[in-house]
C-alpha cells in the first residue's frame, strides 16, 4: 500500500479505554457521537495483543498482532474506516518499556526461558544472567519451593505450576525434579524473593512486567513493526508513548521513532515537576499533559484556605511529620522505604556496576560496595524529579546541596567520598565507557520507579490535607497556582511546545477532574469543612457506628465523599458507598502505614470497610450531599472554568471518556469502566440552537445510545505455545495487585443530578455570577443539569477548535487579558490569536464573601465580541464582568467582524 501523507496534528483527542467489554466495535458505534462532539481524533489505549482478560492492555505479549479480544486487526481497520468517514483519525498508546512476564502468552519470553542466552530473543529483555548464576528468577510461587514441591508438574516438555506454564530445556524432561529444575535457564522462586533477587528489569516494582531493550535496533524493529505499518497505511495517525523514563535512553529512542514515523504527532507520558522542562532535544510534540492539569487545578485552589486545611488536618488527625504530617518529610520517609525494600534488587544491581567501575580504576578502587550502595540510596531519595538526564541539567538536579546532605549520613567523612563517585558517574564526569553509561542509565531508571512509587503511590496516600492536590503531576506541598504563574506556563507552552497534549482526567488520575473540583472548593471554606467533619463525626458516634481505625483515614474518606458522593446515581456494580469503600481499601494499602498489598492486615482493612459503609458511604452521606449541594454553584464555576481553560489554552486537549459531561470517578479501576455516552444531551444542545448558531453543529439525530456492546470474543493463547487445559487465567500476585482491575462494571451515568437553586438576590442589587445573595449578584445555579452545561461548553469549544485550528495551533498566539477592579483576581482571561477570548471565574466563593464583582471590568481588544456559550450576547470595550458572567461563570468570546452582525469566525 502506498504510504499515506503526514496528517495534520490533532485539534483535540478523545481517550477511549479499550477492553474486552468495550472493544473496537463499541468504539466504532460511538464514532458518530464523538464526531458530533467536535474532536479530531480518537485516542486509543494499547491495541496490541495483551494478556487475556486485561482491562488496560499495557501488559503486551505480542507486538506483531492487534489484540483479538478487541476485534483483531480487521476490527481496528473497520474502526479506522468509520472514523475516517466521519472526519476522525486514530491516535494509539504504545508501550515500548515492558511486556508481560507471562511466558505461556509471551512467545519471545517463552523461547528465552527455553533456550537461554543463546535465544535470538535474549537480546529483547534486560536480564542480568550473571547475577542469577545463569538462571532467570521467575518469582511465581505462592510459598517457598520446598512447600510447593508437590504442586510442580511435568507435562511433556512443559513444567506447570497451577495456571503458570514454563518450557523445559531440551533433553531435561526425564530428569528427577531436583535435577530438572537446576538444568533450566530459569529458577522458579517464592514471589517475595523478587525484592532482593530478581535479575531482570521490570516496570516499577511489578515483576509480571519485564523490561524490553528497545534501544537495540533489531528489538525496536520487531516491537514496532506492526504499529509502523498501521501508521504508513493511514490506519493510525499519531502516538502516545507510555513511560519513556523507563527506557535506557529516551532521546535516541524517540529520534529513531520520529524518523520511522515520518514525524507524525507524538506525545510522551513524561510527568514534569514544578520548574522542570521537557528535554528540548526530544523530537516530540510534548507531554501527555499532566503539567497542564497541575496548573489548571492549582488555579482553582485558594492558597490561604489550603493552609488552613493543613492546620485543621494536623489538629484532627495528628499524623507524625514523616507519616503524613509534613509533605517533604513524608516523601523522604516513603522514598527510604521504597529504595531499601521494594527496589532493593535494582539498587544491588546498580551497586555491582559501580563496584566494577571502581575496581577497574586504581584511583577509585578503595570505595567499598556498601559505601557505594549507601551513596546511591542517599542521592536517589533526594531527587525531586522522576529522572535526571545527563543532557538535561542533571548536575543541577543532583545538586551540591543534595550531595552534601548525602555525605552527612556517613559516620566517617572519608567514606563519604562514595557520594561524589556516584554523583560524577550519573552526570558523566567519570567518562562515557559502556560501564559508565550503564551506571547512569540504571540510576535514571531506578529514579523514575522510585519517584512514582514513593510519591504517587505512597506519599499521596499518607499526606491528605487536600486530596484534590494529591494528583499525578501535582504538588501537595504547594497546591495553589496564581494567575501570573498560570499565564507564564501557558506562554511557555505556546512558545516551546504548542502541540503538546493537555489533560484534566485520565485512566491514571486518582480522582476525576469533577471530583477534584468539588474538593478544591473546600479551600475557599475551610471553616465550613471543619463544621461538616464535626457534624458527621458526631452523627456516627450517636449511631454507635464503627469508628475509623485511624483519623487520617477518616479525614481522607470524608473529603473524598464531598467530591464524589454528590448525587451519584446507583449503578449495577454498586452505589457510591461500594465504590468509595473499594477506593479507600486501595488507599490504605498504597499508604502502607497499617496494611499493604504485600503484607495485608485483614483486621485493619475490615475496620476501614465497616467505617466507610456506616459513615461516608452510609446514612451520613446524605449530610455530605446537602453540604455539597450548598456549594453547587461554586463547584459549577470550578467544573466549567477548568473545562474551558483546558479546551482553549495552548496545547492539544485530550478529553477522557465520559468527561464531556459531569463525570465522578475515583482511582482505578473505578475510572476504567466502559463509558456511557450521552448523545441525548448533544441532541438537545443542537436542537436548541437549530444547528445554526451553534458553531460546527452537526445533525446528531439517530446517534446510537452505545449501550448494547458486541459479544466478547474468546481468550486466545499465543499461537504456537502449549495449551494449559482447565487452568484459570494468570493469577495476580501481590505485587501486581497494585493495579487491581474490575470486570463487568458498567460506567456510572456521567450526568449526575444537578442541585436546583432558586435565585438568591439581595434586595435592590444586581446579580453576580458565582456569588448569589451578595452585591451585584447573579444567580449562578443555572440549569439543574451540570452535565448538559458541561457538554454544551465542551462541544462548543471543540467545534471551534476544529473549524479554526490555526487559532490554537503551533502558529497561534497567547496573550493574558487582565481584569480591572475589586474582583480582578477572580477573573482569568486570555486571547488566542487575536480572535478568541476565554474568560473564567476562579475562587467564586471567596469572591462572594468579598462582595462580588462590583465594578470589575475586562478590557476587550478592539472590535465586538460574541459569546458562543450564551448566543445573542455580545460585548465591546470595557465589559463589566458581572454582565459577562450573567448566564454562566465562564465565557468564550469570538471577534465579530464590523458590519456583519454575526460571528466573524
Index terms:
globular; 905 residues; 8-stranded parallel beta sheet; alpha/beta; disordered C terminus; Maltooligosyl trehalose synthase, domain 2; 38% helix; 28 helices
Protein model, in words:
There is one protein chain. This protein has 905 residues and is an alpha/beta fold. Among the domains are: 107-211, 2-Layer Sandwich (Maltooligosyl trehalose synthase, domain 2); 327-462, no CATH class. The chain has 28 helices and 24 strands. The strands form six sheets. The protein has an eight-stranded parallel beta sheet. It has a six-stranded antiparallel beta sheet with strand order 19-20-21-24-22-23. Strands 6-13-12 form a three-stranded antiparallel beta sheet, with no helix packed on it. A hairpin with a 2-residue loop joins strand 9 (158-161) and strand 10 (164-167). Helix 1 packs parallel to helix 2 (72-85). The chain starts with 12 loop residues before the first strand and ends in a 9-residue tail after the last strand. The model is unreliable at 691-784 and 899-904 (pLDDT under 50).
Write the layout of secondary structure elements.
Elements lengths: L12 E4 L7 H14 L3 E4 L3 E3 L9 E7 L5 H14 L3 E6 L3 E3 L6 H9 L20 E6 L10 E4 L2 E4 L2 E4 L9 H6 L3 E5 L3 H4 L4 E2 L2 E6 L5 H16 L5 E4 L8 H12 L3 E4 L17 E2 L2 H10 L3 H15 L9 H16 L1 H16 L9 H12 L13 H4 L2 H8 L9 H10 L7 H29 L20 H14 L4 E2 L10 H8 L5 H17 L8 H14 L11 H16 L10 H13 L6 H10 L1 H17 L3 E5 L22 H11 L96 H18 L10 E4 L9 E6 L3 E6 L2 H6 L7 E11 L6 E7 H4 L5 E7 L9
Helix pairs in contact: 1-2, 8-17, 10-16, 11-12, 11-16, 12-15, 16-21, 18-20, 18-24, 20-21, 20-23, 21-22, 24-26
Protein name: Malto-oligosyltrehalose synthase
GO molecular function, one term: (1,4)-alpha-D-glucan 1-alpha-D-glucosylmutase activity
GO biological process, one term: trehalose biosynthetic process
Amino acid at each position: 500500500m502506498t504510504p499515506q501523507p503526514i496528517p495534520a496534528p490533532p485539534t483535540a483527542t478523545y481517550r477511549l479505554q479499550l477492553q474486552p467489554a468495550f472493544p473496537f466495535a463499541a468504539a466504532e458505534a460511538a464514532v458518530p457521537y464523538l464526531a458530533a462532539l467536535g474532536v479530531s481524533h480518537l485516542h486509543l489505549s494499547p491495541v496490541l495483543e495483551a494478556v487475556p482478560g486485561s482491562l488496560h492492555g499495557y501488559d503486551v505479549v505480542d507486538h506483531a498482532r492487534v489484540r483479538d479480544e478487541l476485534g483483531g486487526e480487521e476490527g481496528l481497520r473497520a474502526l479506522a474506516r468509520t472514523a475516517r468517514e466521519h472526519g476522525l483519525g486514530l491516535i494509539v498508546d504504545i508501550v515500548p518499556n515492558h511486556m508481560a512476564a507471562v511466558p505461556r502468552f509471551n512467545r519471545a519470553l517463552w523461547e528465552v526461558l527455553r533456550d537461554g542466552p543463546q535465544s535470538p530473543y535474549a537480546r529483547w529483555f534486560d536480564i542480568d544472567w550473571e547475577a542469577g548464576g545463569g538462571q532467570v528468577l521467575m518469582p511465581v510461587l505462592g510459598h517457598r519451593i520446598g512447600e510447593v514441591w508437590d504442586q510442580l508438574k511435568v507435562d511433556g516438555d512443559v513444567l506447570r505450576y497451577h495456571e503458570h506454564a514454563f518450557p523445559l530445556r531440551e533433553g531435561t524432561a526425564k530428569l528427577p525434579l531436583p535435577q530438572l529444575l537446576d538444568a533450566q535457564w530459569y529458577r522458579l522462586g517464592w514471589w517475595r524473593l523478587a525484592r532482593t533477587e530478581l535479575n531482570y528489569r521490570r516496570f516499577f516494582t511489578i515483576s509480571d512486567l519485564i523490561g524490553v531493550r528497545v534501544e537495540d535496533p533489531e528489538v525496536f524493529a520487531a516491537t514496532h513493526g506492526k504499529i509502523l505499518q498501521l501508521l504508513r497505511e493511514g490506519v493510525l495517525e499519531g502516538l502516545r508513548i507510555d513511560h519513556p523514563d523507563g527506557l535506557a535512553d529516551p532521546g535516541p529512542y524517540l529520534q529513531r521513532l520520529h524518523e520511522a514515523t515520518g514525524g507524525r504527532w507524538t506525545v510522551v507520558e513524561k510527568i514534569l515537576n514544578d520548574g522542570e522542562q521537557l528535554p528540548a532535544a526530544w523530537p516530540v510534540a510534548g507531554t501527555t499533559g499532566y503539567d497542564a492539569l497541575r496548573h489548571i487545578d492549582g488555579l482553582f485552589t485558594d492558597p490561604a484556605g489550603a493552609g488552613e486545611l493543613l492546620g485543621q488536618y494536623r489538629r484532627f488527625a495528628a499524623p507524625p511529620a514523616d507519616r503524613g504530617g509534613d509533605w517533604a518529610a513524608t516523601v523522604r520517609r516513603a522514598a527510604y522505604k521504597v529504595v531499601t525494600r521494594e527496589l532493593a534488587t535494582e539498587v544491588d544491581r546498580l551497586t555491582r556496576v559501580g563496584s566494577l567501575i571502581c575496581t577497574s580504576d586504581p584511583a577509585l578502587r578503595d570505595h567499598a560496595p556498601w559505601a557505594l550502595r549507601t551513596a546511591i540510596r542517599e542521592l536517589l531519595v533526594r531527587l525531586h524529579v522522576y529522572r535526571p538526564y545527563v543532557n538535561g541539567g542533571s548536575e543541577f538536579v543532583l545538586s551540591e546541596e543534595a550531595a552534601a546532605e548525602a555525605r552527612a549520613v556517613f559516620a566517617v567523612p572519608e567514606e563519604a567520598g562514595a557520594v561524589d563517585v556516584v554523583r560524577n558517574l550519573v552526570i558523566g564526569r567519570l567518562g562515557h565507557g559502556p560501564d559508565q553509561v550503564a551506571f547512569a542509565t540504571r540510576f535514571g531508571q531506578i529514579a523514575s520507579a522510585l519517584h512514582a512509587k514513593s510519591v504517587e503511590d505512597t506519599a499521596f496516600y499518607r499526606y491528605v490535607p487536600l486530596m484534590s492536590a494529591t494528583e499525578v503531576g501535582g504538588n501537595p506541598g504547594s497546591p495553589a497556582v496564581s494567575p501570573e504563574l498560570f499565564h507564564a506556563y501557558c506562554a511557555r507552552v505556546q512558545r516551546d511546545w504548542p502541540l503538546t497534549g493537555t489533560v484534566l482526567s485520565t485512566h491514571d488520575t486518582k480522582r476525576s477532574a469533577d471530583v477534584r473540583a468539588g474538593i478544591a472548593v473546600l479551600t475557599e471554606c475551610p471553616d465550613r469543612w471543619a463544621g461538616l467533619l464535626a457534624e458527621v463525626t458526631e452523627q456516627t458516634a450517636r449511631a454507635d457506628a464503627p469508628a475509623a481505625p485511624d483519623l487520617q483515614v477518616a479525614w481522607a474518606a470524608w473529603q473524598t465523599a464531598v467530591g464524589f458522593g454528590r448525587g451519584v446515581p446507583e449503578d449495577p456494580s454498586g452505589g457510591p458507598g461500594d465504590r468509595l469503600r473499594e477506593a479507600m481499601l486501595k488507599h490504605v494499602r498504597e499508604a502502607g502505614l497499617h496494611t499493604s498489598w504485600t503484607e495485608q492486615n485483614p483486621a485493619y482493612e475490615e475496620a476501614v470497610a465497616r467505617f466507610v459503609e456506616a459513615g461516608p458511604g452510609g446514612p451520613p452521606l446524605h449530610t455530605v450531599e446537602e453540604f455539597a449541594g450548598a456549594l453547587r454553584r461554586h463547584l459549577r464555576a470550578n467544573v466549567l472554568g477548568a473545562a474551558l481553560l483546558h479546551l482553549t489554552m495552548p496545547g492539544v486537549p485530550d478529553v477522557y471518556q465520559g468527561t464531556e459531561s459531569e463525570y465522578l470517578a475515583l482511582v482505578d479501576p473505578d475510572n476504567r469502566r466502559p463509558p456511557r455516552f450521552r448523545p441525548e444531551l448533544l441532541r438537545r444542545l443542537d436542537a436548541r440552537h437549530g444547528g445554526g448558531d451553534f458553531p460546527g453543529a452537526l445533525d446528531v439525530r439517530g446517534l446510537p445510545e452505545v449501550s448494547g456492546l458486541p459479544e466478547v470474543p474468546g481468550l486466545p493463547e499465543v499461537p504456537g505455545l502449549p495449551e494449559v487445559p482447565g487452568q484459570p487465567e494468570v493469577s495476580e500476585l501481590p505485587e501486581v495487585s497494585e493495579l487491581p482491575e474490575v470486570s463487568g462494571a458498567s460506567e456510572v451515568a456521567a450526568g449526575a443530578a444537578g442541585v436546583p437553586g432558586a435565585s438568591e438576590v439581595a434586595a435592590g442589587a444586581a446579580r453576580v455570577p458565582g456569588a448569589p445573595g451578595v452585591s451585584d449578584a447573579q444567580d449562578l445555579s443555572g440549569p439543574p443539569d451540570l452535565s448538559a452545561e458541561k457538554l454544551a461548553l465542551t462541544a462548543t469549544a471543540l467545534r471551534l477548535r476544529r473549524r479554526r485550528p490555526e487559532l490554537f495551533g503551533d502558529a497561534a498566539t497567547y496573550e493574558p487579558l487582565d481584569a480591572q477592579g475589586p474582583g480582578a483576581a477572580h477573573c482569568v482571561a486570555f486571547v488566542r490569536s487575536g480572535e478568541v477570548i476565554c474568560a473564567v471565574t476562579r475562587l467564586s466563593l471567596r469572591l462572594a464573601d468579598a462582595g462580588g464583582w462590583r465594578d470589575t471590568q475586562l478590557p476587550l481588544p478592539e472590535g465586538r465580541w460574541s459569546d458562543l456559550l450564551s448566543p445573542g450576547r455580545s460585548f465591546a470595550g470595557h465589559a463589566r464582568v458581572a454582565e459577562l458572567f450573567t448566564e454562566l461563570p465562564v465565557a468564550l468570546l469570538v471577534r465579530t467582524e464590523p458590519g456583519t452582525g454575526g460571528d466573524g469566525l
